[in-house]
User: Which sequence fits this backbone?
């Protein structure tokens, strides 16, 4: 039985609690949080506390708190011989104190309101300093997802950066697209099948091969017409920069 | 029985041929193309010709050719009393000669190698000048997809522009994301579940509400760290511009 303590009460903590508390080989011995209100969610099913000094003994302590708080909270914990991990994409493992066994368990997902049922193939990226700690994290990560990857701190921060491009920035483009639709009395729902196509294509081929559109074709006439239609300087700038970037990407072929 | 002639032999023509030639209420009477080789695909199943003067009588003539060629080819056709439509997103209906009944049948999809089986809910955007022509196009469009929308030329060109943002530009961000992964020895496949999440979220909520990430949170520390990590000036510029655009979008809330 693996004893786990969760520190933090946000989305990642709730997600891990939900997935791990049902697992027969895990016992969540405690959840620590900043307020009684935030701990409400967990109170009925495990021990809770707002006092970090009341931390109970566990095999793994999972810090699921905001990036900025990780260093300070980690250094204030008295956890003896347990393994301390954080769950942040862009924070190196070395932010955790060198005096403890340390590691990272990073679920590569935004975890914003998506239910665990749907997340069965999210990659769990793990890192540790010692072989035995890798084994513990591998076991724990496999309780969450079948997909477990060894990713070091440098790779992890680049993975997080890559995720910003693929997820956050593409969502913003969906938003800009919806604004253009709205401004011209067109239902954005018409665009949704196209977004599905983007996604479906990128499952089976590389984004390099999947690229279509005026910039890819070098269709300057359409690009000029589009720039003419865009009244907002911000949209114009984004259109120009991304089109230029696409043309640079395929430049050698033209 | 609706008699249809296809002019053009590319993806859209092949798609329309596949969907319509199986339909009991449609007869594809002819496919016209620029070369015998391009017509090979259709030869066994309908009349074909490379000579526009040999055009047969039909109820609807569908121009499925490149944007630039539409005006010239349309003006050279002798089609009598038939209805002439093009299939282009960014070309106004008025490019077709005023002397004929004219319209537009625009399948809002990139049609690049996706099989018709998967395209059952793609929106077909139709436009015509006369009520009776709308009725014909509605009927024909419903043979292709259950989703038929009346979209005028101004709306259609903005829809096409919106599609560039949602589809072409987001695919390029997937590519940039894959480049970052590759440069740091990380498998881009790890990112794919995140892309699925983007898509799943945008099905059920507005992209405005779905936005996450450092720019949305106003997390300057992470954004500075990301800019530091990006060595390519082009990626830096894209990161800065899209982050600024996200911050502007949510600025009033901060």
Assistant:
């Amino acid at each position: 039985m693996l004893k786990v303590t969760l520190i933090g009460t946000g989305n990642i903590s709730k997600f891990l609690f939900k997935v791990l508390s049902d697992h027969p080989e895990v016992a969540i011995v405690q959840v620590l949080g900043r307020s009684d209100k935030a701990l409400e969610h967990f109170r009925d099913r495990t021990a809770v506390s707002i006092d970090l000094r009341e931390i109970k003994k566990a095999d793994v302590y999972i810090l699921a708190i905001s990036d900025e708080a990780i260093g300070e909270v980690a250094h204030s914990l008295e956890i003896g011989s347990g393994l301390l991990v954080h769950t942040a994409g862009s924070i190196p493992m070395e932010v955790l104190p060198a005096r403890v066994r340390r590691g990272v368990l990073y679920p590569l997902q935004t975890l914003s309101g998506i239910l665990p049922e749907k997340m069965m193939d999210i990659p769990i990226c793990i890192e540790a300093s010692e072989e035995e700690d890798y084994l513990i994290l591998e076991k724990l990560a496999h309780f969450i997802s079948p997909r477990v990857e060894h990713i070091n701190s440098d790779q992890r921060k680049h993975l997080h950066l890559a995720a910003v491009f693929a997820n956050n920035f593409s969502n913003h483009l969906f938003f800009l697209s919806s604004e253009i639709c709205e401004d011209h009395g067109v239902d954005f729902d018409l665009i949704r099948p196209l977004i599905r196509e983007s996604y479906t294509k990128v499952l089976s081929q590389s984004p390099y091969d999947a690229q279509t559109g005026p910039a890819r074709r070098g269709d300057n006439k359409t690009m000029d017409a589009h720039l003419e239609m865009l009244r907002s300087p911000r949209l114009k700038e984004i259109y120009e920069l991304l089109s230029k970037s696409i043309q640079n990407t395929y430049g050698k072929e033209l």
